[in-house]
Design brief:
The radius of gyration is 14 Å and the shape is globular. The protein has a five-stranded antiparallel sheet with strand order 2-1-5-4-3, sandwiched between helices. Helix content is about 45%, strand content about 25%. It has one domain (about 1-125): Dynein light chain 2a, cytoplasmic (Beta-Lactamase). It is an alpha+beta fold. The N and C termini lie close together (about 10 Å).
Length: about 130
Amino acid sequence: MIKKIQNLVEEMAQELPHILAVAVVTVDDGMTIAEATRRDGIETAAAAAYLASIVKSNSKAINLLADDELIDDILITTDQYHFIIRHMPDQPFFIFLMTSKKEWLAKARMLIKKYEPRFMGLREALEHL
């Protein structure tokens, strides 16, 4: 099952020209389940635990500010990159996507939504990791 998830991540990473990294990460412990990078020096596995803490703290903050709201995604931008974190409600994992700023943000978000149902189909396997 891990191979299916890895293949899906690698397929996703090839969809848009300016994607630099894609990863599926567990929320509880920040463990990388699968990852694909298109540039040397990107350490998604090393950053995964920090990304998981962002997901958890963002959820707590939103619950305090807007009790019934669901988070679509978390967007972090720098002068060179977009970082998109998509955690679907009640899922034990999130999808992380890193692009250069040359990539259209809307296309990157649409790509995540395109792949989301395919990852949901693997939910049972992801819950038992």
